[in-house]
Amino acid sequence: MTATKTSTTKTSTTKTSTTKSSTTKTSTSKTSTAKTTTTSKSTTSKTSKTSVSLTPPTNLPASAGSTAYPSAILVNGVFDGHMWKYDRNPSSCEGQSETDEDAAMFIIEAGGTVKNVIIGPNQGEGIHCRGPCTIENVWWEDVCEDAATFKQASGDSYVIGGGAFHAQDKIFQFNGRGTVHISGFYAKDYGKVSRSCGDCTNNGGPRNIVIDGVTAVDGGPLCGVNSNFGDTCRVTNSCQDSGRSCDRYEGVVKGNGSSKKIGSGADGISCFVDTFVTNCS
Known about the structure:
The chain has strands spanning 66-69, 73-75, 78-88, 106-108, 113-119, 127-129, 134-140, 148-150, 156-160, 163-165, 170-174, 178-183, 186-188, 192-196, 207-212, 215-217, 223-226, 232-240, 246-250, 260-264, 271-277.
């Protein structure tokens, strides 16, 4: 499905599920040792899903501290990282090898939120959303296989703000159904910002990607969708420095060959593009 990274060889490790117990952060830095935590169950209001900055920050924010875990953190409710950097120790990154959610930094249950987090380079799959989720002001220092994967059966997921760097292939992988909204996001040095799965088991659609206020430089299209499955991508108020807004593909079911690119740009059927520029400064 994707090319293999050759810059670094990562050793595969076995991940085990752990019970998370509450910890209190009392210092501004931590050593990279395995820790456990629980997610906050308190209810907080989400950032507006219609009012976001159209000029997102372009640099990785400074972290308030750092911590590392031996396994993925399971999130129910709201997890606010308060701009700490979270990573895996030992590393679960295996380049472009398919690893799945056990290699993730966070696994979000349906309706959950991860916010105000920096994700380090030593995790394989970033965030996995089992159902509709919200990812707010999350930054990926160095994407391994994917930054986030959406597996919802239906409904809406939201990426609000944040950014990602150094994704050899796609940043956001959409394996489920429904709609993923990406707004106020920054991408640099990447393959694609978002992609409907080209060759998943039981592949199909429709999948809808809505992109607004996204800035992307040194990379490929903002979205790639499978026209034959009824997917759509809508791009507004966004910039891609080489003019690549939307690519159209023919998706396949796993085992039936490879997904093939069939076109680029707005066609009024699968790709809709409005207020799109190439000067991203």
